[in-house]
């Protein structure tokens, strides 16, 4: 796929478009499944101001949004973080989650165990490599799914009541990471209702009801319900790239 994601933020005085290629690698590849470039324009006259590494911005802003959702929705005493998947998003989520939150244990599972072992060796802290998704998930307070799964890899039967799940992979209407039991027995939050109802197989195929957009929780028009089992389905929004690109550009400009 080749995607084009344009957005304008008046509040940030920023106009961008992201070009992203998305290839499903049937075998493990040294090339990431997603590659991207962000173009930043001057909103007053359309001049191209910068070309930015969209892959880094995508990884960072996606993890940042998951962290916001987690801060709002995770249980009060969250001690165990579980990451399913060991690609680019696993690293970016690990980085920000261990910076912002205090977990006593971090677990990882990946379909190819060698990648999980490589992940555990590469990151700064102690990570337990699990031999199955069920082992990784059992008893976890916060779960992050960042896989290329097309069929459910996370079963509701394994999930601790009151846990919070960030579902980041499965960005196609016929792909899934979470099973029906989990989707229907959790309170479902999304970044965009419109996107979730057209792009997320987890939402569409399960028929789960969307409780709120994350923005509604931030604005205070919908409650967070951290005492419940919660799912945040993240698909990504172009405005997130816009805000992140402008932040990077402004920081670079200030240094020059």
TrEMBL record:
Listed name of the protein: Ketimine reductase mu-crystallin
Any GO BP annotation: thyroid hormone metabolic process
Reactions it catalyzes: (3R)-1,4-thiomorpholine-3-carboxylate + NADP(+) = 3,4-dehydrothiomorpholine-3-carboxylate + NADPH + 2 H(+); (S)-cystathionine ketimine + NADPH + 2 H(+) = (3R,5S)-2,3,5,6,7-pentahydro-1,4-thiazepine-3,5-dicarboxylate + NADP(+); (R)-lanthionine ketimine + NADPH + 2 H(+) = (3R,5R)-1,4-thiomorpholine-3,5-dicarboxylate + NADP(+); L-pipecolate + NADP(+) = Delta(1)-piperideine-2-carboxylate + NADPH + H(+)
GO cellular component: cytoplasm
Stored Pfam families: OCD_Mu_crystall
Similarity comment: family membership: Belongs to the ornithine cyclodeaminase/mu-crystallin family.
Quaternary data: Homodimer. Binds the thyroid hormone triiodothyronine (T3); T3 binding inhibits enzymatic activity.
EC code: 1.5.1.1, 1.5.1.25
Cross-referenced InterPro entries: NAD(P)-bd_dom_sf, ODC_Mu_crystall, ODC_N
Lineage: Eukaryota, Metazoa, Chordata, Craniata, Vertebrata
